[in-house]
Amino acid sequence: MSLLKNSFCRSQRKNQILTHQEQPHTTQEAKTKKSFHIPFFNNTSKTAPAKDSTLQASSHRKSSVNMRRQNIVHRTDCRRNTIWSDTVEGELVANLSPRELNRQEVLFEIIKTESEYVRDLRLVEELFINPIKEAEKKHRKQIVPENLNKVFNSISYFLFIHEVINSCLSERQESQFPLVRSISDILLPYVWVFRSYAPYLIHYEDALRELDECIRKKDKLGKLVRKQQKQTQCRNMPLTTYLLKPFQRLLKYPLLITNLLKCTDKDSFDFNKTVSLKSKLDEVLSNVEEQKRSHDNMERLRELETRIHGLGSFRLAINNRQLLREVPACQNLSELKKQPSFRKSLTVTSAPMSSSKRHSVRNLYALECNDIVLLAERTGITKEGQPLYKLVSRPPVVDDEPVMVEKPEDSDIYFE
């Protein structure tokens, strides 16, 4: 999950900047943040001081409950200020073991955050996707860019599936209140749903760039998004924050299921199902991450292919090929670093032909993939600051197997 976490961190930092720029904090909001309430560390009892042994025992029991509440693993959304132990009788909490208390808190968090996730997805569809579709019908043309449109389609699909999951979890919580015994049997059949998050992750970053561009240009989509973001239902958060929700949910599921497994006894009837749930979830998310990695690698190969002159009919971007690095071909020659004059005079020439040309080693780069290495001369840079290359080594033959180049001298390059 490291790749997803890194992408999430980049998106979150960018989203925080955008939110800060578009939604300045008021004085009242600052005061609200300062008076942040955490129920674990506050005794809400309003009873008078105990005067007899019965009240003293009751007070001692409540104190013990509060102490145990401080020790449970607090992984709920504190902004909602709701945990499981706040929704049931204190006597029930006092009679539970610490392990079971933790387990009920985790189960409560899974169900509660699933409901909040569905609420946020529904907000995106009702407040943004549906009005945008109506605007497209009105203007009889598509106003949503390609990648953003794919992200919107994914969100509509997520909403459809997670509404079913949320409904099942809510029914289980109501039928087994106050102690939920199991939810693994509900989640297991829906693990496959997370495979559908791969297209969302693939198009997510490009969709954000397209959305920022539309808002900057103030086109039809940008104006509509700005207008809808001012609605009270948005809770002073931009659309980019809500587009981040599937990312956050995908990263949170493994943590929640891991916590649930830690709090489940091995001799419990639900232990094996929880183990199976965690195993299948890890497998699916690894597959999603691999799809994301493969897509990013293919995009890098395609982008590099456009910056190399002289490839001819050879295609660099093919399946199972991985771009490893672009590095100077002679970066490890200590003589070049110690003797600048020698470095300037050192040149290479292509295979002995009538049209052979000499190239400076200073501009010679090795473009290394897992199955091939190309030698190219750096000739300039693009507007984005990426280097432009001219192929020096012989292009691989398209009809044959890719040419493996282990060292510079294997590519018909001769050093003088």
UniProtKB/TrEMBL annotation:
According to UniProt, the name of this protein is 16600_t:CDS:1
Give the species: Funneliformis geosporum
Alphabetical list of InterPro entries matching this protein: DBL_dom_sf, DH_dom, Endocytic_GEF_Adapter, GDS_CDC24_CS
Residue ranges, annotated region (Disordered): 14-67
SMART domains recorded: RhoGEF
Task: Tell me which PROSITE patterns the record gives.
Answer: DH_1 (PS00741), DH_2 (PS50010)
Q: Cellular component per GO?
A: cytoplasm
Q: Which Pfam families match?
A: RhoGEF
Q: List the subcellular locations.
A: Cytoplasm
Query: What main location does UniProt list?
Result: cytoplasm
Q: What is the superkingdom listed in this entry's lineage?
A: Eukaryota
GO terms in the biological process aspect are: intracellular signal transduction; positive regulation of Rho protein signal transduction
Q: Where is the DH domain?
A: 102-311
Positions with biased composition (Polar residues)? 14-29, 41-67
Q: For this protein, what is any one GO molecular function term?
A: guanyl-nucleotide exchange factor activity
Write out the entry's keywords from A to Z: Cytoplasm
